[in-house]
Design goal:
CATH superfamily: Class I glutamine amidotransferase (GATase) domain
CATH topology: Rossmann fold
Order of helices and strands: HEHEEHEHEEEEEEEHH
CATH class: Alpha Beta
Helix content: 25-40%
Largest sheet: 9 strands, mixed
Structural class: alpha/beta
Oligomer: single chain
């Protein structure tokens, strides 16, 4: 009887210990990846991004892919008011320049305005172009306030020399400069970000004008923003082609940016304990 009771107690203690460890183990960061629309191979990039992020940190990616290839179609994920309620961060990678209904844009921005972190990738900068997006004096839209970067266009696809501008940020600390394959360099309005944004990486691209004269553009291509005083936002305009999206350096940058927005990045640019990639 004593042996039975001892064994029972041992099993009970083990079960309690295992339950405690299960409770201590952090749950994955729940990320919603929204993508689709014009001009990009989103059908492949959705899988490259989801796999790349999960391989680098404890991130669970839910994909909201819209196969429509126009700039006029709203991703169906935004149809409900509570579209973001199950997520810790939203990755905006859509290309929807001509979705301009203000009520729709307000619905998309509402959770971020309330504090939900976000990532904005490449063509997401050129979305939701409401009145004022191309104003010569100072482009301004509600979407630009969220992204942190007023951008109205891009140049030809040519290599971009990337230089880390902020070597102390945990997002870019220890990262080396590198040159992309042919990519689009998005413009910055007069080279500036919004007041709440900070540059991380700059991109330099040399091209030729219509007369054949060489010209060099130098713009911010990665940055952070704090939207409405609450939501942390990481953005990059790099990421048009599949080879760039699949580049380990690009995926490392996005992973760090995501972890920074959710508060799970250490000062040396590593995932916090429990948020490393699953073995």
């Amino acid at each position: 009887m004593r042996k039975f009771l001892a064994a029972f107690v041992a099993v009970a203690v083990l079960a309690v210990t295992q339950a405690a460890h299960a409770q201590d183990k952090p749950k994955p960061i729940r990320a919603l990846l929204v993508l689709g629309g014009c001009c990009h191979d989103y059908a492949k990039q959705k899988d490259i991004l989801a796999k790349g992020l999960a391989e680098r940190a404890n991130i669970e990616v839910t994909i909201a892919f819209d196969p429509d290839k126009t700039t006029k179609h709203m991703n169906p994920v935004y149809e409900k008011d509570d579209w973001a309620k199950d997520f810790d961060v939203v990755i905006h990678d859509e290309c929807s320049a001509d979705v301009t209904d203000q009520a729709t844009i307000d619905r998309i921005l509402k959770p971020h305005k309330d504090g939900l972190p976000g990532l904005v990738l490449h063509c997401a900068m050129h979305c939701y172009r409401t009145e004022g997006w191309n104003k010569k004096e100072a482009p301004s839209t509600p979407w630009f306030e969220f992204t942190g970067l007023p951008s109205t266009g891009h140049g030809a696809q040519l290599p971009i020399e990337l230089t880390v501008a902020d070597t102390q940020s945990p997002i870019t600390k220890g990262m080396a400069n590198w040159t992309t394959i042919n990519e689009e360099l998005y413009n910055n309005f007069k080279g500036s970000l919004v007041e709440t944004a900070k540059p991380l990486i700059r991109g330099k691209q040399t091209s030729k004008d219509r007369t054949g004269k060489e010209q060099t553009a130098d713009n911010v291509v990665a940055w952070t923003n704090v939207y409405n005083g609450k939501a942390k936002v990481f953005g990059t305009t790099i990421g048009h082609n599949n080879a760039t999206v699949a580049d380990p350096r690009y995926l490392d940058l996005l992973t760090r940016g995501l972890l920074w927005t959710t508060g799970h990045l250490t000062e040396d640019g590593k995932p916090m304990a429990g948020y490393e990639a699953k073995k």
